[in-house]
Design a protein that fits this description.
Elements lengths: L10 E7 L4 E6 L4 E5 H6 L4 H4 L7 H4 L10 E7 L3 E6 L7 E3 H11 L3
The structure holds zinc ion (ZN).
The site of zinc ion (ZN) has 7 residues, from helix 2.
Length: about 110
């Protein structure tokens, strides 16, 4: 039996709010967060976007988003701990842990 994750970082449901361009996340503790696509895109934790080994990330110098960069094209679960996002420009290397997603949701606000 796997050890159940705490409810606050256990997503029950993901959904798209296309008109508002936001990702909806329903958590097991009953909270529903609405994370705007641009917020999610800028928070991409991959090495290119976030930077690594002292190298600045994608948004360090040029914070403007290009065409398609913040169009969420697809999402997929990564094991039992994270969410992978595929963006309109083909970028798909970011894996958002549920802890990270919860943080982003807390900051973005309740749906
Ligand atoms: Zn990235």
């Amino acid at each position: 039996m796997p050890i159940p994750a705490p409810d606050r970082t256990r997503p029950l449901r993901f959904d798209y709010d296309e008109p508002q361009r936001a990702l909806l996340v329903e958590w097991a503790d009953g909270t529903v967060h609405r994370i705007p696509f641009p917020v999610l895109r800028r928070a991409c934790p991959c090495a290119v976007c976030a930077g690594e080994m002292g190298s600045p990330g994608r948004f360090a110098a040029g914070p403007e988003l290009g065409a398609g960069e913040d169009d969420l094209a697809d999402i997929g679960l990564v094991g039992a701990y994270g969410l992978n996002a595929v963006w309109g420009d083909g970028h798909s290397t970011g894996i958002y842990t549920f802890e990270r997603l919860r943080e982003l949701g807390e900051r973005a606000g309740v749906a």
